[in-house]
Amino acid sequence: KTSCLACNSTFSTENPGAISPELCGCPVGTYLVAEERRCKPCTEGVSCTLFDMPPLVAEHFYMPTGAPRDVSKLDVYECATARECPGQSSHGDPVCAFGYRGTNCAKCEDNYFPDGLQCSSCGTLGKWFLLLAFLVVLVVAGPLHWRFNHGGAEKNNDINEISFSTTVSVGLAYVQTLGVIGAMSLQWPDAFAELIDLATSVGQGSLLTLLFFDIRVLRPACSIKQTLAAAYTTRLMLPVVFVVVFAVWFFASFCVHRMWKRFPVFRVEDLCHSVGSILIGLYISVVSACMLLLDCRTSPNDKKVVRTIPFAECSGPEYEAMIPVFVLAALVYIPGIAGLVCYALFVAPSKYTSPRFRVMIHFLVSDFRPDVWWFKTIHLVHALLLGMVTVVWPDGVHAQWLAFLSIFLTSLVVHQAMLPYSEHHANVLETWVFVVLIVVTICGGLFLEPLELSSVPKRVGQGLLVVVTLGMVGVAVGFLNVLRHQRSKAEKLQRREQEMKSVVEDFIQIANLMSWSHEPVVELLLGYNYVDLRNLTSSLRLFRLELCGHQPARAVERRLSAGRSKLSLTASAELTSRRGERCDSWLDA
Q1: Phi/psi at 368 (5° precision)
Q2: What letter would DSSP give residue 125?
Q3: Residue 399, phi then psi, degrees to nearest 5
Q4: Are strands 296-298 and 304-306 parallel, antiparallel or unpaired?
Q5: Share of the chain residues as helix, strand and coil, in percent rounded to the nearest 5
Q6: Neighbour-count burial of 459, counting CB atoms closer than 10 A to its CB (0-12 exposed, 13-18 middle, 19+ buried)
Q7: Sign of dihedral through CA atoms 174, 175, 176, 179?
Q8: Considering all CA atoms of the chain, what is the largest pairwise distance in Å, rounded to the nearest integer?
């Protein structure tokens, strides 16, 4: 009579009827831990589909070549996408896809660069592509700058031009925000992830990736060694490149103007306007690029890697060498830019009389209503909060989701309370942008892993209730404001005519006051904001031209005959009789 003997501990046999203890091994779903002589269930990132065989690397994960596979803690990393890490079906399969190498398969082989969905050969042009791209930007920047400014940003007051600028700024903010949402530690459905990638052009090799300071489309891997220092500093250098390009045009314009007088001389205030428009328009990406060094996600081996530079670990000498660079960049790009903007907006009412200052801050104030000229600071706070979410909660996907939802809901409530844009369509557009972002975030919450409610503090649940309530109130207020501001073109035209009549009457009263005493006028002007002063200045110049035949600058050369003055022909007899005396005193002033 015979009996079956059990294999030791966690071991088993592949088939029943084994006749030797040597046939005992680790069953499917486990792997051998050599030091402990036991079978351990497969952990995240590996698959154990073969009997008594070392584990295979699963799809979307990476294990360094030569890393032991019989230890309790496997050295497994989580890749950014499954495209670079297809996984193994047998032990002879490579861990990385063709052309990829390095930690998380995030690097291309030498003389190759990431081109959308694959690594492509650099070729003969690849090593010079980055330099050629800089030269193209250098050549194109000058004409675009001149077209953008028309010789002075303060002349860009046309309603269509303002509408275009507000639409572009809202659209840029929306696309950048989608890119930030796409960086959440959330497994979006494939169809939706492709939609986000299409909207942001991430991973598609498009020039639009430059909006996120992702310069891989310029093939830096062909001319610069792929290191953390290179990947991080090249992103941080993009704003510096803008400044250098416009500085070159500034000095070149003087040299060319001396040889060819018709060539325009670029003004400092115009260059500040162009550079400021770019930096503020891309401020969400500026903050994200600066903070990416701190945006580290944890892999199954408990090692942290930089989320947007997956081959770089958040430890070691190379990472520590970048800390001073990060501190300098953070000081310049975050409090530096924000401080300059806040200072410019703080002194704007008192410095409006300076034409150069008006040009410099045109990009900050031109889109907004006069009474909320400072609203750009709210946009900066919004951008800073978006960039900090994944830094504060790198692996807490539930906290990320709640933070994004809170930011969007709060922004919607603030926007609806203020309706800051001077153009009605821009207010409606930004309202719908926030509504779409809120819907996208809420839909993303459907794919979160279930959270143990018992582990959630009571205050967090109360906070979520408050956030959702505020969001509902914000959406309701938004729709009410949209309906309230819907008026016909005829009503708008009639209202503008009434406003113009009121402006003329006020102007006549101010002109009469000026003939009596300057003190009431000065006291009145001190309370004006930048747009009121701007409109008054334009009106004064118009009246000087039409009533007196001159304007403030070079008045003698700009005199007009009485026949060319439109308002003078319809002026009252009393005003006409006093016009000469008033004009002489006005010209002297």
Answers
A1: -110, 165
A2: T
A3: -65, -40
A4: antiparallel
A5: 60, 5, 30
A6: exposed
A7: positive
A8: 137
Whether the CB-CB separation of 177 and 437 falls below 8 Å is answered with yes
pLDDT tens-place values along the chain, 589 residues long: 467 777 877 788 877 777 777 778 888 888 888 888 888 888 888 998 888 888 999 988 999 988 898 888 889 998 887 888 888 888 888 898 888 888 888 888 888 888 766 788 888 777 888 888 888 888 888 888 887 776 444 444 444 455 667 777 888 888 888 777 776 666 665 555 555 555 544 444 555 677 777 777 788 888 888 888 888 998 888 889 889 998 898 898 888 888 888 888 888 888 888 888 888 888 888 888 888 888 888 888 888 898 888 888 888 899 999 999 999 999 999 889 999 999 998 888 778 778 888 888 888 888 888 778 889 999 999 988 888 888 888 777 788 888 888 899 888 888 888 888 877 788 888 888 888 888 888 877 776 766 554 444 555 555 555 555 555 565 556 555 555 555 444 455 555 556 555 555 555 555 554 554 445 555 555 555 556 656 666 666 565 555 554 444 444 333 333 333 333 333 333 444 444 454 544 444 4
Quote the Cα angle for 115-280-160, to 5°: 100
The residue type of 173 is: A
3-state secondary structure of 167: helix
Among 382, 287, 293, which Cα is nearest to 337's?
287
Q: If you search the block for the tokens 């334009």, which residue do you land on?
A: 538
H or E element at residue 296: strand 296-298
Q: Pick from 341, 414, 404, 332: which is nearest to 376 by CA? A: 341
How many CA atoms, within 13 angstroms, populate the side-chain half-sphere of residue 500? 6
CA–CA gap between residue 60 and residue 74 (Å, rounded): 15
CA distances from 434 to 77, 261, 372 (A): 35, 49, 20
- 10 Å CB burial of residue 391 (0-12, 13-18, 19+) is middle
Q: How far apart are the C-alpha atoms of 567 and 581, rounded to whole Å?
A: 17
In the three-class reduction of DSSP (H, G, I as helix; E, B as strand; rest coil), residue 145 is classed as: helix
What's phi and psi for 118, nearest 5 deg? -155, 175
Helix (H) or strand (E) holding 349: helix 337-351
Strand pairing category for 61-62 and 77-78? antiparallel
Residue 453: how many CA atoms within 13 Å on its side-chain side? Answer: 3
- Report the candidate in 74, 58, 48 with the shortest Cα–Cα distance to residue 301: 74
Q: Tokens 């028309």 map to which residue? A: 150
Rounded to whole angstroms, how far apart are CA atoms 122 and 516?
A: 77
